[in-house]
Amino acid sequence: MPRIDMDAYEDDWDEDDPSPVRRSRELSPAARAKIDQLDSARVVAVDRGRVTVLYEGEVVEAPLAGTMRGTKTAVGDHVRVRAPRNESDVPRIVEVLDRDTVLTRTGDDSQDDERIIVANADQVVVVLAADHLELGARFLDRVMVAASVGGLDTAICVNRCDLIGDRSVIDDLAERYAPLDVRLCVTSATEGDGVDDLLELLAGTWSAFAGHSGVGKSTLFNLIVPEANRDVGEVGPRGGRHTTTASRAMHVDAVDAWLVDTPGVRSFGLGQLGPRDLARHFPELAALDCPMDDCIHDGEPGCKIASAQIHPERLASYRRLLASLRGG
Asked: Which of 2, 95, 153, 158 has minimal CB crowding within 10 Å?
């Protein structure tokens, strides 16, 4: 259910009463109707408790009103706001609406402390470093599972292509994911190559970047949205230093899209998912007609894993994730 600030709402509508009485949080039809008439906005940044929204075509700060303080909001959230009461006032968030999609991760596979990366996005674009592609592919498979759980599409951007001499590794990766209809583009943020292809991939969507620290997300973000001026860093074999510390969405005028730059991570936990739920988020395995409805394709009688149309590296990735979610 949406979180509603009834205290702020009642204070707002009873502002002629100098000592408003705190009422039950049970909404009457009349109260619900009044809240539904409030303006809506969309969260475009959350940084150390400060929330910024797109409201009436402008990007403005919008504090959480009353008892909404302490409520967790995420970039992409749709919210109801109380309009400013005077020239010195600002919009105030009184309700966070239900999310259509959500991308979350946990600290590791043994934890269930879900951290929201983005809400209500159409797709997540996983940025991989061409010179560390196999490490990136393992990260990609994790994000694809989380995106499937949360209702998002996944796309791939292989960046830093200028740092490799043999592009066959990129062709191999494209072949691995082609049967899944995952769109892929190849870029060099430092050279400016492939940016038009990336823009085509983003066109008309709300998208979020995801990737290891230092793979070039912020450099690409700066190319696409020059006014962003995001800090950039370098990548190493296990990722780079964190340069983006808070998520922020900005409009990509060239293709009428919104793009969210997210902080880089070194791990992408799936602790919100049980081992028996994993296979349904690997499309190649979800399509199998095994005798057991809850088959996890690990030696069950009659399992049809042998007939699966799945790339060997994808199957190996599934088995690694399954073992990790089991605590192995």
From this structure: 2
pLDDT score of 120: 98
CB 273 within 8 A of CB 256: no
Residue 191: closest CA among 166, 220, 171, 233: 220
Give the start-to-end residue ranges of the domains of the chain: 3-96, 102-261, 275-325
Confidence (pTM): 0.86
Encode pLDDT of 296-313 as tens digits.
999 999 999 999 999 999
The CATH number of domain 102-261 is 3.40.50.300: yes
Task: Say if residues 303 and 295 touch (Cβ distance below 8 Å).
Answer: yes
Token pair of 131 as six digits: 């010179």
How high is the mean pLDDT of the chain? 87
Q: Which amino acid is at 244?
A: T
- For the chain, give the number of residues: 328
What are the beta bridge partners of residue 104? 116
The DSSP bridge partners found for residue 129 are: 159
Q: Is the dihedral of CA 306, 308, 313, 317 positive or negative?
A: negative
CA separation, residue 155 to residues 89, 127, 159, 261 (Å) = 41, 9, 13, 15
Domain 3-96: state its class. mainly beta
**Whole-number pLDDT of residue 65:** 83
